[in-house]
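so my prof wants the structure for this chain in the tokens format not the other one, which i didnt know existed until like an hour ago. anyway here's the sequence
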Amino acid sequence: MRIEYDIKLGFKDVMIRPKRSTLKSRSQVSLKRKFTFKHANTTWEGIPIIAANMDTVGTFEMALALAEKGLITAVHKHYSITDWNVFSSHAPEGIENHIAISTGTSANDAEKLASIVSFNPHFKFICIDVANGYSEHFVDFVKHTRTKYPDKVIIAGNVVTGEMVEELLLAGADIVKVGIGPGSVCTTRVKTGVGYPQLSAIIECADAAHGLGGQIISDGGCTIPGDIAKAFGAGADFVMLGGMFAGHQESGGELIERDGKHYKQFYGMSSATAMDKHVGGVAEYRASEGKTVEVAYKGSVETTLKDILGGLRSTCTYVGAAKLKELTKRTTFIRVAEQENRIYTN
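here's what i got, hopefully its the right format
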């Protein structure tokens, strides 16, 4: 046993200090980024925000809505092969640049992925997603996937430390997903005591990834647009959102009416709700590590997108970043004990 005494930080522990700027308006800020990926030898351009691969978020409907704005959706892995084929047959041109096909690491997952890719060869991204990215089996699956799909951009996670980011990049991943326990419907930290404050995880993992020519996704912990700005400021190349994209018309989850108000169900993919739905219940050897909640119905995701993208542009004007890429170079974090005046906040 050992103890690390360095303080690790989450989004709530810091704010971004403003700086002098030559920008006159938010309209001058470009949120688009262009990446060339380490192994896939391909490029991508768009707004680097990703809808999480949860079945209450990463739906085909969400993918269509976000693609119009240049964002990515990691489509959840529980759609059938037929669902994918039907969607692909009717999807608009260019959608393949804004969708990641999600997969687990079992033999059945690999077989299903192969079937989806064979019918949809133009999809650019594969997201290999597990809760714990530290196992040898996971690294071996990443290596096998890279060998089989040399031209695909492979996303792999989740991890929270630099040495594991490096191992996954060397194993064939182009982008590593960073985050253990920060999600709004994740209870891993409560059930296991394991985790890492998200801001520090981003800073440390981005440093490791960029040294090898890879990228990272900050996955989890963003509850407001300011958190997304902090994630980019800390060095994240992409930011993945679950709870902020939940509860919309395009989201999955049951629509519930109670006392004249509408809600949508939102749950973690390791929750009892998800496991009952997809694998017949929680296995005897494990515990549920997710919550099930009801989110107030928000209507179209377009309104939320305007709020998120507008907030990001505003952050950039406060520090003088004309492009999102410049934000991390112009970010100085200050430690704080208070974020906002909450007297009129319910």
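also thought this was worth mentioning. The CA atoms of residues 181 and 198 lie 9 Å apart.
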